[in-house]
Amino acid sequence: MALTKIGKEGITGISNSSDANAITIDSSERVGIGTSPNAKLDIKDDSNSTQAILRGRSSDNFGILDFRNNAGDTVKGQVKSDASSNLILRAGPTNDALKIDTNGHVTKPLQPAFSAHKNNSTQSNLAENTDVTITFGTERFDVNSDYNTSTSTFTAPVTGKYFLSVTLRFAQLDVDANYHIIWIDTSNETYRFIVDPNFSADLNFYSMTATVLADMDANDVALVKFNQGVGSAIADVSGSPSYSYFTGCLIC
Known about the structure:
Blueprint: E1 2-7, E2 10-15, E3 23-25, E4 31-33, E5 41-43, E6 63-68, E7 75-81, E8 87-91, E9 95-100, E10 106-107, E11 113-117, E12 132-133, E13 138-143, E14 147-148, E15 153-155, E16 160-171, E17 179-186, E18 190-195, E19 206-216, E20 221-229, E21 236-237, E22 245-250
Parallel strand pairs: 4-5
Antiparallel strand pairs: 1-2, 3-4, 6-7, 7-8, 8-9, 9-10, 11-13, 11-22, 12-20, 14-15, 15-20, 16-19, 16-21, 16-22, 17-18, 17-20
C-alpha cells in the first residue's frame, strides 16, 4: 500500500500499486523517502537517478530554496537558480553573496574590497624623522563601505586574510636622507618597504610599492605611512590618481 493524497482532513487516498514504505513518517515527525529518516527530511535513491527536483516558477523560471527562521516568517538565506541558469547563494532574501554562472565563473558581489587614491592634491614636504600618514581622499570603489576617506583608513569587517597594496609616486626624494620607508600599518603588524637613497641627486620621478597578505581581526585597521631618516623635508607624494593609490580586498 502507498499514500497517494494527504489533505487537511488527513490521508484521503491509498493505493496498493507500490511499496507503502516509500514514504516513512516516524514518531519524531521525521520524513524519509526511500529510507528510514535520520533528519527532518531524508531522501535516498539507490538507482543513481535524480533524488529531488525543484522546478522554476512559472512567472520568471526561477527555482528558489528558502532557509527560514523557526517561526517561518523571516528568510535567512536562499539557494536560487535564475532564468539564465546562474546558481546564486543568498544571505537573507535579497543579498546575492555568491554566484556561479553557466561558464563556471564564481563571483562574490558582497566581498569586501576597496580602491582609494589621491584626489589631485599633492602631499608636499613630508616631515623627516616622523611617521607621516599618507592620505587617499577619493574612492574608485568600496564594496561594503569599509574604507574611510576622512581618515584614509580601511577597517576589516570580519576576521580573515586581506590583500593590501599601496603605490606612491614621489617628487623631490631627498638624496641626503639616510633612508626612505613606506609601510602598511595594521593593528596586528607593520609591513615595510625601504629604499637606500643611493643616487646622485634629488629624484623628481620615483615610485615605491608595498604589498602584503595581512592577517586582520574584525575591526582591525590598516593605513599607509612614510618615514624619511634625516635630510630635508622636501619629499612630495604626487596627487595624481594614476600614480598614488591604496587598494585591498578580503581573500579568505
